[in-house]
């Protein structure tokens, strides 16, 4: 539960009353109540107004709006207002502005433009947070803290001299001696050997390729630097309001922060979801992000902190959400674990960079809009779903996702720039999504108990302890599935000596002699070694193939075309009570689906309903009840066989006995008693 | 008239004798006379030679060539030589070099590389201009002043500290208080609130999106800064030679200067036209630029100050002008209002960045070239057209073009980057061009008297007073045609509260609830509500559609396909004696042509002749006579029915009674007595 | 001969033992011997290890490995270790780091990041080289010196203040007076006139186009600056070890160094060859590079200093070399003149930017790999080819290649960016490659004695003396073939006055009035003036056409399509005993092949064997014997008619009488006694 006073799904959005006169606030209260809003995020970008100069605070507007919200029964997710410092602060201290790798020092004029290692910025921010928290700690509207905003969205890296000093301290803590840095980074290569700490700089502009371990550690350092900023605020708030939950909003597509590491410091995961409404967009991508966010919190319910009621303003072409699409995505969120559905933003700005980002109240300024009607309808529906809050999802399959692995693999020079980590993950996620098989996304140090299958595509980096953990998982009966370019390097991006796949050789029962990245006009074919009813006998492969040698494994498929001919393409190895698979090429989506179907069948994993293409199913469970969210993303009406059972439609309260018809773009939420 | 001594069309070009020895000058005089040259632009890039150091001037070469030109009967458009300062000046003063938004300080080595707000540069330039003007004020060859050269061609923006100071002064003058800046720029958004003037900087490199109003005002400020440079020179020249006309040459495609504002300070508009000779180029684009330039001068004749005799040197592929093409474009210029036809340049440079830009005298150095023969032929023809000078054009249709609107709309984040202002203007200009209907291009503060139709595509910004002016225009019987994304913001790029289309709601009789930018694979269809003989019943639409609600308007067409189905697509509203149209999508060119044809027919607007495709007609009028320039840009010969009338062919002096045959690439100029 | 002790083909590679522990060194010795290695390049990137600080050297590891190699019979190509300075040096002296044209000062962290005009860097480097050479001058393993590494690969340009000072000195030496700089650079254009040396800067960031002569001279200056660095080391080594050969390794695709000028200072040419193993790659490209490198050394044998045993790490997609491909390319090298075949690198790095660059010993660390087996096989084969060392190639045809011409032509603004120099050269090289006609690549100052045909495609720049030389060549009976955009400028990029083709007018018997670059949708056709059995009567042409006027020449083909219709397209002029051709357009590959075939036939030039498509022939000769390397690059087996002769297969020692079958991917080396 987010807060002891909120028993329903949180509903509301970012609210920026400082952009409006007080008469508009009064209208907002009425419209919020009309829409069923119970929760708003406040003061995210208010620093400049709250603090006119270094020694003066002015909480007039915030006092008023906090009181007004309270008197209208709306709770506040109060931001710490540190997302963007005032111009005067940017100017007053020379260390505030971040510097690019090319040495360009930034100027204020946008948002989030500060160096995370700036002492001046940190001092000012902690002063603000301490003052704000002290003032509102007992305010009855205050329900949760919202630290900063979308960390790393614009400033995920700085290369200034302060960062250089902090980086050296970070390295000293991590490596103790400069000799170990040399060893782990392999600085005997290219005459990069460091004799003193002070010789180490951020990986600034240089003439050739950079040291990959240096770059990797700098990414870790920058993620940690921003996390330090977060933790600094967290500790202040925790001390002043020990009982309140604290969050910061993650953002889809932020690849420069190690969210798994961050999540450990966050009470409730919340995130900002902006699926593209263009018809070519695949809702599986947003589903994956939900699963990832839920994974950060180890399965706990999260908050959808921002979504757009209609279009955004930052794509090249900002397609509008057609009627019903916002509702569909809202239920995708709830179905995948959200206990809160929030918008950016409540009232559309008239000025500034985001004025064409849609809002619940459009530029017309009133409630007479299609968009507001949809917001209101959703608000009323969500009130019927109090039973959902706190419920969780169950999955038999987990997919490993690891930021450090992505950072290491996606170094500027690599085996193939056609291969990206996120695509490799999604290529395996999508068939499971289409089969409506629930999946959890886990980190490399997550608890694997309860999973039957663990997928680890392109797990290039094998950190200390991971191989043992996976062996245990497999030995205990799990199926481990991994793919090409896995287990190549240690956590400093050093190749394991003795050949691939490093410490997973025993588990997989193979060695890999060579890897062969392929250009788009280089294709190959795989053929199954045994005939199988459900998997096509031969199938195209592309992008990459490995030269695999069998040690103990069995061959499931071989390359049957010119490229790699006769060599194993897919192998499996019995290991303890389980099985470890290796897929040494990029197979087609249909092959992956058939292959995973077969494994799921054997592991007794299946979908609760058989659903037509384009219809998504999500199950949440609590107190012995299942709640099925069926979402028709397809352009056809869906007819669903509920197989003689009877369920309750949560929105209408009616029982469903027969076939269920869900119109294109519509949803149904069924309560299933076990 | 440019000058009391020149009674014919000005003919000549940029002349850079400093690149040649004096024996070549003598050959030049002979060749100029052979070609009919009566006017040359001199000294544009001569500063470094004219002033060896800060305290020394050396006018030796200029004295000589001025005298030589005079003794050969050739008048001089004397440049102020400020287009590029000498290296010694760039080095002597630290404030001269411009600085990019990224903080890169430029170095001399090209041309036009100076900060427009550099005090040192301005001092040196005014010193030069004063000295030059004093020396030549009574020289008999001097016919006109040519200030600087193609302002903004390379340096249209600088972000240095001097510019920061000047920007603050500019803002203080415009806004009086920093509070008003905050209000107009919406700085309560993203914590950008300014407490002091000194907190405001140029929109330099920053980590996220910039404040659009800040960016817009900086564009205004930079255009004004360069205009200040121009005015500084203008005032010196005006004082020393009160009777002489003064120009500066505009350049096609310069989008960073508000030429409408500049034009008010210029005695004679002149411009540099460089249509691409590649076969895929549409001559309508150059025609539009001519109309735009004529519009800057409120219809007064202008000078084509530069065109290439053959190819240019700065395109990726510099196609040569095939025989006759230069002549065609020369008459397009005259037909559209030019009283001067000038080349860049007279004699082709042997060295430097532009040595492969064609010239009247080619690298062979003599007059034995196809290019020179064409220059000579044209020179002789133009001598027969003295009657044209001073004549003007008449148009019943005007199209609004507004630089500030372009700057505001084309902010880095907008509804759709697939929409650009110039394309939207051209999409409506081209059908009228193809129909040979004369069009004027007007600014938002131009006088609309006499126009029957006013087109305002994508007029996103509605400045103060504009709505009233348009209402008056329409009420008085005009037809106003505007399109999607119009009347969204005020002149500070703030959205009008209360919904779209802001202050034009009453005029148009509609409100617009939402806008829907479309990706290239999203198409829709419009269908007319009434059958019409001349306009296709249904037609494709793309790029964008609006959700329109009718208040008072009539529906002309609705969306008939999935996207927007049933909503109005095109509306019209009777307003006083006139009618106001709104086109809420991007229609096909054929639709636009049929639609405009119908409106023209009703307004009794038509072309003097019915001409085959690819044949352009231009009419100039004076003293009761019409002069028709018929240009065959097509690859076929054109047969034209002159409808029983008889005309005089101005070049041959013969009467034309019958059908007129104009060969592909040829032209005809007819005198029509009314 | 590389060294008096090495009588066979040098075989080995870059060896970086500092990345490994000493037990690995021992394994390396065994594996090297197993593979037939006799030569390794050592210490290329060892500076940081060899010199812990400015006053301390530590040669411990190098002493040990030198001794170990010697005791295993392996000779050393000892690098001077200056390819990358240690971090401490980069930090200690402010002048070491290079600066970009935009003013970005680089930071250490990669390799080769130093300013070539840094006094501090040069001092430190010469100190190192002197110390190193003194220490190892008498070491029995030392066989050759390897200066630095791949000069210009990353840092071919610097724009710092030190470079500015050095540039002025370079100019003073070249031009004596600033007045001559002004004249040669044409600074009267665009007000760029210099009054003092100190006004001249490197061509740093500026707002418009730069002065092309300035840019050209800066390229010359930077190539010379790096050459100065090389020569500084060369002189030290020459003094200390007067008898040893000295090299530096060139790299394919380095366009910023004038290798013809450099080659004069190098004892043995060596180079690094990295053909793309992707199937779309044309082996003619690598063949051209071999011929170019051999040309640098005036035909002397060279060393293939680096090639990849399998894939590289720096392409977007690093395709693996399929089995046999490395061997094919190795014999292409030997066949085209290499007396050494070396790899980058011996043992694959586990860390650093190049860890995915293949090596002889893979990440498995042992000799159990396909790659090592191929390395070993090749090593054993090469031992049978001692007779090859020192042999040379003979060619009747030469193609001119000139770096300064490329730099001048490829200025940022030119007639057509679709035309590039290297492509124009390759377009004429490829048909000769396909016909297996040997070609030499020569510079503009090479000796032309013995050639029957000289091809000079796009020789835009004609340096002083070149025209006379070519006239002599032709007058003596040679055929000179040149193409469009040739002989346009002098060596300062100034256009020859009096029209094109400048000083070649008399030789070619034509003048060119205009040039017409074409867009991709502009095509034309040429037609032969006389019917010819072997050349198609008409043929497509594209990219460019010239307007040619005949003075004395004969017309071989005319333009027969709209573009250029009726004008000559190809001409020839009898000149003395020879003939000079001009090709005024870009013809199709098939036309070029037919055209060149005909000329070769007349000049009695032909291939020793008639070979199927995709089969490459190379002949080396020595002591009256010919050695034919036949390489089957095609995907089919080749059947070759050896025409009743009998040859010895050098690898098997067997006589070949009959048809010769060479499998796809295989090679044959035949000894042919004359």
Give structural notes.
The structure is a homotrimer of 674-residue chains. With 674 residues, chain A is an alpha/beta fold. Chain A folds into four domains: 38-268, Glycosidases (TIM Barrel, Alpha-Beta Barrel), CATH 3.20.20.80; 271-390; 397-602, Rossmann fold, CATH 3.40.50; 615-673, Immunoglobulin-like. Helices cover 29% and strands 21% of the residues of chain A. Chain A has 17 helices and 27 strands. In chain A, strands 10, 11, 12, 13, 14, 15, 16, 17, 18, 19 and 20 form an eleven-stranded mixed sheet that branches. In chain A, α5 runs parallel beside α8, α10 (283-296) packs across α14 and α14 (421-434) crosses α17. The longest helix of chain A is centred in the middle third of the chain and has 29 residues, at 212-240. Chain A is globular, with a radius of gyration of 26 Å. The first copy, chain A, starts with 9 loop residues before the first strand and ends with a strand. Chains in contact: A-B, A-C, B-C. At the B-C interface, α2 and α4 of B face α8 and β14 of C.
Which key features would you list for this structure?
homotrimer, 674 residues, alpha/beta, TIM Barrel, Rossmann fold, 4 domains, 11-stranded mixed β-sheet, 9-stranded parallel β-sheet, globular
